[in-house]
UniProtKB/TrEMBL annotation:
Domain Receptor ligand binding region residues, every copy: 51-121
Species of provenance: Priapulus caudatus
Keywords, sorted A to Z: G-protein coupled receptor, Glycoprotein, Membrane, Receptor, Transducer, Transmembrane, Transmembrane helix
InterPro entries the record matches: ANF_lig-bd_rcpt, GPCR3_GABA-B, Peripla_BP_I
Residues forming coiled coils: none
Chief localisation class: membrane
Protein name (database record): Gamma-aminobutyric acid type B receptor subunit 1-like
Top-level taxonomic group: Eukaryota
Cell compartment(s), UniProt: Membrane
Keyword Ligase among UniProt keywords: no
Pfam family, one: ANF_receptor
Recorded name of the encoding gene: LOC106816954
Amino acid sequence: MNTVVDGALTIDRMMRSKERDREPTVSGFTPDELYERYNVITEGRELFGSNLIPLAYDPVWAMALGLNNSSKFLRKRGLGRLEDFSYTDAQMTEAMMEGLKNVSFIGLKGYMEFDEDQDGVDDILIKQIR
């Protein structure tokens, strides 16, 4: 097995940026403070999937900020309100896509932003097995 994997490269998303643990996230809390709060809530138990917290935290904030931007977009153009959402309303879809274009913030994984296709731009981690 060692012969097979020696020198292999792995590529993965960075789940938590250790060097930014003292920098406040979009919520105003640092990653360390958020994990401390998590530990209080879970009474120090590490629940299944807790290592995936950044995969939920950052997208939830992105959606919230994107919806806020969408609401402003709709108001400026006189196109209604988010509360009037309908799956068949193309203008609402456009507003939501436009709302994500201007979203950028510091999350648990670090700086979060979207490209022109509204895809998240992630930091990646490259490791070589030795």
